[in-house]
Amino acid sequence: MIDVMELNNYRTMTEAHQLLEYWNNLLERSRLTTETMALAIPAKKRRRIKSSSLNFINLFDISESRYQSRRFMVHLLAMKLLLQTYLQNRVSSMRELFYRDVAAFGYDQNVLNEALLNMSFVTNGGVPEDFRVFPSSKGLIYGGPLIQCSEGSCQKFELKYESDAILVPNFHNHLKIDTKIESIILFEKDSIFKTYCAHVKNNHLMLRGRHVFLTAKGFPDRLSMKLLKAFVTEQTEVPIYAFVDSDVYGVNIFRSYERGLGEASINLKYTGIFLLDYKEGWQTVSSREVILMISLLRQLTLPNPPDSRIAYESHLLMKQELSRGLLLFKKAEMNAKENFSKCERTLLTYLDERVLRVK
């Protein structure tokens, strides 16, 4: 147990150090006992007792089951790691926090993510970012001919066609884009993204205007979505083209972007790839995928056309691709090495014609 004298010594320290030291002792001592033992959480005695001393409540006084007590311990550990990062004046990632005590989080990154998310809801803010903890960077971004992005008075990054793609950067404050963007192009697969970026790098003199290319390597992660929202917040009229596979997973990835953008998704357009345009990428759908496609078709609703023409057309195209897939029992996955059956156009030419209008 942590006695009263030990707690009184904490009052001479700063508030942050006080919490950190207390949670350190709390966690270390709780690990030496079972979860049915006292967790040593201080609580003031009732007012009718004329004493300023503290007593301690048992773990089961604040939880109804072993599962709830475990969740409580996880939140304490998450707060401890946040404070350690803040007091050490360093920048860290959520993945790095997870690896500091993998066993405590049950070898599951989502356990830590959920704890940090709950803390954000309680404080109505970005708790991890406030303590210099950012999501791990997974997505890639590329663009040009020259797009400069700054955070406050400092330049954050710049995009050039002559340069290579970069990891999506972390940023905390408002991101300012100093140049007007003609379009944002999203790719489901990083292999297609890299192939097309190499094509643009070698033929960028043919392009007109400034374009940004982004991939989250599948479903959009938190940091990639944050950057995309920063772009559309700064430039509300910029069109967004999404290239995903013609299957149930590609449609779900598009819908993830749609939900993440919220009201800004009115400029998000489902651009393909389409099943009948890419027979070289055909594969037979599995029985599980058939069930998922039927379920997704029932969920898809058509927005009101006057409110969002682009969203209405995108939902029509998604329903079209799912219906064609069920009729033919086929799906189409993009492959940069294959040719399109229609007019023997390559995938790169197809992307050029649909987005950049390069003849």
Automatic annotation (TrEMBL):
Its cofactor is Mg(2+). GO terms for cellular component: nuclear chromosome. Pfam families: TOP6A-Spo11_Toprim (PF21180), TP6A_N (PF04406). This is DNA topoisomerase (ATP-hydrolyzing). Its EC number is 5.6.2.2. Belongs to the TOP6A family. Keywords: DNA-binding, Isomerase, Magnesium, Metal-binding, Topoisomerase. PANTHER family: MEIOTIC RECOMBINATION PROTEIN SPO11. The keyword DNA-binding applies.
